[in-house]
Amino acid sequence: MPCILVIDDHPAIRNAVCRALHREWTILSAASGADGRVLAKVEEPGAAIVDLGLPGEDGFALVAELVEMGLKVVVYTGSEDRASIARAIAAGAEGFLGKSQDEAELGEALHAVLRGERYLPPEFAALVAAPSPVLESLTPKEREVLRHLRRGLSSKEVAALLRVSEKTIERHRANIRSRACLTEAEFAELVKAKGK
Fold first, then answer.
1. Average pLDDT rounded to a whole number, residues 53-62
2. Domain ends where: 127, 157, 179?
3. pLDDT in tens, 103-132
4. Which CA distances in Å does 191 have to 36, 87, 92, 145?
5. I want to staple 124 with a disulfide (CB 3.0 to 4.6 A). Which of 36, 41, 67, 120 is the partner?
């Protein structure tokens, strides 16, 4: 089984999660997004369990970065509202658990995401049962462009990262706006929502 990275700033929660999982996986733990990024680069774990509420950190951007590094991400957080679930999934998380759930359920979530499946407990699945027409209608490339824009990258930076022309990124932006029936101002709000 792959190594698992746990990123949570609360020592008691981080330790409880590590105890719940240590029999089955090798566990790495980090108290901050910065430490988590370093461990992800150096140790190359297969999956990460991430708290969205890390001090001084945009948890959704952290999820997106870890996904870009090739990790399967399960969010384990106290933010159990529909918007947080939807934004975490949009950032690339494949699993989402609230801290009101038992730590033992994290094992089920990890098995699912490592098999390439999405994991949401029934109560969260019901919250997001109506898929976002915006995200569902986007192509994989458009979702990737949107994810980078939500991280705060400019169209030019996204173009360089994806090795395409800036014009191609602008076309993706226009397609996203068109599919979502958004004005430029509403699209800017969607992109800006990364930190909320």
1. 91
2. 127
3. 778 999 999 999 989 898 877 776 665 555
4. 25, 11, 15, 11
5. 120
